[in-house]
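Q: Protein A?
A:
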Amino acid sequence: MDDDLQQADDDGDNPDASQAGDVAAVPNESADPDDLVRRKLPASILAKYEVYSYRNAALILAETRKAEFDELVEALESFSLTTTQIRMPGGNESEIPKTFNASLRPKGWYETVIRGDLVVTLTWKEEGSRVDRRGRTVATQTPRSRQTLRERFLDGHKIDYVKNRVAFDLEWNSKDQTFDRDLYAFSAFSQCGVVDAAVLVTRSAELNAVFRTLGPALLKDGSIDGEGGKPKMLIHKYGASTTWMGKLLYRLNAGRNGSCPVLALGIRPACISDWSES
């Protein structure tokens, strides 16, 4: 979730784009085996979410960070949204992020910022010579060192939910570049040894079928969004250049999470409480 979350408005994008250059339909060989991932997650999560694991995230979370993982699983199991919430505007006041706030904040999952200076030490040996007691010239090496301080080498990378050594974030409908910021933050926390694994939740492409059935988008007051008497269809609000699983997999396949193990979950139609295919 982005504090500066800006609801994306991509009327010109194809919401079903799956073969674009910066979209991945499936994980590549760097992802963890699907059968291993499914063994580490409860059936309730697999039914509601599309799930992928990178750098053994599922194994690490289930085996070494079980207490925190159990809390996330509980929050994910209880998460649901309505068709009205989907049609309403996003931004900081969106009801969808608030659902996770209500579940996780009371349990100690806090927005966390990492900052740090970098001390760089250079060492070398200066070669010289001296005369020993017998009057012979012998070679010498004198150890030398110098330190350089790079202040604010890490400057304010933020993750919306961190508890102990686990990170969690939600990207419902931001511009897809938000994923780069999230994965860079995950990597920074991991490289500094303060996070063992991260969970990132976004939309599954399966939701596009739902968006098409819901008609026009709504304004905050519940009236129909539109311009010049023409309603703005909901499907265009959730365009291909927003945060959804295809955009996230592309980045995970490229290794943009760095050293950080990441469990990626895509919200599926089963999470919508008042919608069914029938």
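Q: Protein B?
A:
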Amino acid sequence: MPRFMDWLIRRGLRRVPQIIALFWVIKALTTAMGESTSDYLVHRLGPVPAVGLGFVGFVVALVLQFAMRRYVAWTYWFAVMMVGVFGTMAADVLHVGLHVPYIASSVLYAVVLAAVFAAWQSTEKTLSIHSVDSARREGFYWAAVVATFAMGTALGDLTAVTLQLGYLGSAILFAAIIAVPAIGWWRFRWNAVLSFWLAYVVTRPLGASVADWLGKARALGGLGWGAGPVALALTAAIAVLVAYLAVTKRDVQMEGSSRARWATAADRERAGTALEALE
């Protein structure tokens, strides 16, 4: 047990990417892929086998992710994809299986997400993705990711179905919403961590609304392309972009810059003293 606890809190295990523009592109694609893949599997296999398969994929993906000693593009994004599929199923089960209204499930998952953030902040004193450098912090990170996917799925269905905006209307709404933290961070110096998580949450209903618009039947307000073809096309696009990142390593966090960014005041003071001694 002591060795396990040491591993859990040991610093230096960075298995998450640097946030670049391509991060948001792939994130949006995974949210759409998760929605369309979930719809396809549920209708093709049935709810129980589909959810079971989604859970197995989710567990396998996280095991692979935590088995890595550093950030590896394909394992990280495979985990995000499986979270997208399983998170969609988790949200849909409440409505379809238990007949929970979308507004209730949206509130429930919002409370779960708030609880994850509160526990994370209380334990680690930061919610920054750039501070995810231990297994425990990464556990909080993935718990938050799952909650954002589930809540975002419920929110997308709430606006499209309950509020009757339709899938295209919902996509336009969430595209406008996600622009708020982006502009706030870019032009008005909003807190970077707050802006990141606001945008991260909204990518889910945005991607899900676009996927539903593309895949759902015309009678339901979609283009009628089908969930299967949409899921396949999105998966192919994700594979190409992740392969690009794996080759170029553009999103790998640089150790030196990370240490400089996270150095404490005491660290900087000691560094300054050392430089003076050298002079």
